[in-house]
Known about the structure:
Number of domains: 2
Distance between the termini: 38 Å
Largest sheet: 6 strands, mixed
Number of helices: 8
Helix content: 25-40%
CATH class of the largest domain: Alpha Beta
Order of helices and strands: EEEHEEEHHHEHEHEEHHEEEEEEEE
Shape: globular
Strand content: 25-35%
Radius of gyration: 23 Å
Amino acid sequence: MARIDLQGVARTYDDFALQPTTLSLPDRSFTVLLGPSGSGKSTLLRLVAGLERPDAGRILLNGRDVTEAPAEARGVGLVFQEGALFPHLDVAANVAFGLRVRGEPARERVEELLRLVGLEGFGKRRVARLSGGERQRVALARALAPRPAVVLYDEPLASLDRALREDLREALRRIHDEAGLTSVLVTHDRDEALALADRLVLMREGAVVEEGEPRALFRGPRTAFTARFLGAANVVDGWLVPPDAVRVEADPQGDARVVARRFAGFHEEARVRLASGQEIDARGPVGSFPAPGSPCRVAWDLARAKRLSA
Length: 310
């Protein structure tokens, strides 16, 4: 069991404040803290990890109050953007480092972990010979070596190219499921968050804006910020308008203009600039939209739109 409970946790710096935050992250959940830079997501992760102490509130791991406990006493694994591997050690020695510090047998556990992260046979390789994705896999194996129930990730894929990010993203989710972990990952990447999370916590300016199951937040955001950040739909004058509820018709006297049009297989997508200068997305059957550069009229089905809070 590895439930995480935050009860009114807050932290203040000279130029930033994490507002009192209360969250309950279930055992074996994969939670993603999502938000723009400076939203407080990494601060929240570091508080859970024990790398910083809150000014107020309590942190419970499986019901145990660890608010004042040091990081090494919390039993959590940590994986950062840069794996911070030991360059003078080979892969196996890096993975085994934490086990040897504890005086635990390492060989079988290292082999097991390298298989788990897809690096079987890499034990004798030097760190300098690894790709970025391989280094992050080694860092993950090292974090898992002491068998933590909780693993915390701070932007672990940010420095990788797209192909490596997608590959390692799939590996993170698979390992989470196979090992029965409780995982918390920080990112500012919407696609990464939606692909990984079974629980999404969206943050802005030191506070939680919305939280819940990703599909629910994507399909029914309560705030304009959530709708914009997740790219769930157009936000026009406080209304959430799905792209397939937008109608675009050619009109020489129209005050809008088609900016772009894209064939997408069974449907077509368009980008339209309104008279206000705002650009919105539309989606419809192939052949629905005028050519790029064409003046047009735009309307949408209010029955399918939703009024948002600020």
